[in-house]
């Protein structure tokens, strides 16, 4: 392995990844563009799918946003490491998330390698394209169970929008785990997860009856009252609504 790579997590998969990339260069993003199915890229990150050791993998390059963040990367800290560690903890707690496989410091940024989910679509896109009613109910039921499991185990997602839920082969997965934090059951952090989820539901014009089924399922699993949840959820939801209204205008309809 080139001395320009430093393995931070997952030695075995890191060896496979670094061997596939070859000698380290400053243009890791260029390698991703050429050798992966690019899913997303911007100034600060790049994401792609590729085959490694006969398995589908998700690979994300985190570029430092500042000199301070670059220093954190060199110290072995940053969003990629946090994502890897959060994923390991969530898998242990039986929360439905893809497996984290390796985290590597490379020239130009930090690489996170994770399990790729074949034939997956994010829930936001599925809803926009239109999916059958039975599938909608199944997705929302699993979303309620996934969020309840996450919250019961003492975590908050931190960015619980519908595009951060994947659906594949009748299974829902929570993804984009950079912002996962410890949070007690029923806390404000967990309420913000429900607020973010609800905002997307409103913007996608989710039927009120389907939202109520989701909510009742979540409340039952969490042994929470609707009144207690609304008391915690409505303040962050109102802030999110205002922010999105200023940015995008009025969209959808209010559900609560």
Describe this structure in words.
With 256 residues, the chain is an alpha+beta fold. It contains nine helices and eleven strands. It has helices at 11-21, 28-35, 67-74, 79-92, 123-129, 133-152, 188-203, 208-222, 226-248; strands at residues 6-9, 37-41, 45-52, 55-62, 100-106, 109-115, 121-122, 155-156, 165-168, 171-174, 181-182. The strands form three sheets. It has a six-stranded antiparallel β-sheet with strand order 1-5-6-4-3-2, sandwiched between helices. It has a three-stranded antiparallel β-sheet with strand order 7-9-10. A hairpin with a 2-residue loop joins strand 3 (45-52) and strand 4. The radius of gyration is 19 Å and the shape is globular. The termini are far apart. The model has no long low-confidence stretch (mean pLDDT 94).
Nearest-angstrom radius of gyration? Answer: 19 Å
- Span of the ends, CA to CA: 55 Å
Order of helices and strands: EHHEEEHHEEEHHEEEEHHH
Number of domains: 2
- Determine the mean pLDDT: 94
Percent range of helical residues: 40-55%
The level-1 CATH class of the largest domain: Mainly Alpha
CATH topology of the largest domain: Transferase(Phosphotransferase), domain 1
| Unreliable segments of 5+ consecutive residues | none
Structural class: alpha+beta
- Described by the principal axes of the CA atoms, the overall outline is globular
Total count of helical runs of at least 4 residues: 9
CATH architecture level-2 label of the largest domain: Orthogonal Bundle
Q: How are the strands of the biggest sheet laid out side by side?
A: 1-5-6-4-3-2
Beta content comes to 15-25%
- Please outline the major beta sheet: 6 strands, antiparallel
Question: What's the name of the CATH homologous superfamily of the largest domain?
Answer: Transferase(Phosphotransferase) domain 1
Number of strand elements: 11
